[in-house]
Design brief:
Distance between the termini: 43 Å
Number of strands: 7
Helix content: 25-40%
Oligomer: single chain
Length: about 150
């Protein structure tokens, strides 16, 4: 604890075997935040360099996906436009994706970052947070790895 700020490490192996995310909470009324590094990106997730689809599924579904919906998500890299393009390839009629792509395009034109998102938003448009099993996670990651 630092003042009123609490920081909890969440073990999220997969991109690397020792990967962690930082879940930060503060005073009442402040939105919590999670710093996800290379695990969860806006509309994406990290590659499985040292881990498995089972681990990433657990990370996104049972660890990060269980955080409060209003939790702000700060990812380690700005891959938003490419990830949103992939999301639209997977789910072209998703109104949340279409709205986020419009927002992201505007932000990037202004040379501004797109993140943060929230856990609730990621559940609406991130294809990796919408899979139903580790097998689906593996298939989705392979599809993303081959996406141009």
């Amino acid at each position: 604890m630092i003042g009123q700020t609490r920081v909890r490490c969440i073990f999220t192996p997969c991109h690397t075997t020792g990967h962690i995310c930082y879940y930060v909470t503060g005073s009442d009324g402040e939105s919590p935040a999670v710093f996800t590094g290379d695990t969860l990106f806006l509309c994406g997730c990290g590659k499985f360099f040292e881990g498995t689809a089972e681990e990433m599924f657990d990370n996104l579904s049972n660890k990060l996906g269980k955080l409060p919906e209003e939790t702000k998500v700060y990812c380690g890299h700005e891959y938003s436009l490419q990830n949103l393009k992939f999301g639209l390839d997977v789910d072209p009629e998703n109104k949340h994706l279409l709205q986020k792509m419009e927002y992201a395009t505007s932000r990037r034109k202004e040379k501004l970052p797109v993140p943060p998102s929230t856990i609730a938003e990621e559940k609406q448009y991130n294809p990796f947070m919408r899979v139903q099993s580790a097998a689906d996670m593996k298939t989705m990651r392979e599809r993303k790895n081959n996406f141009k």
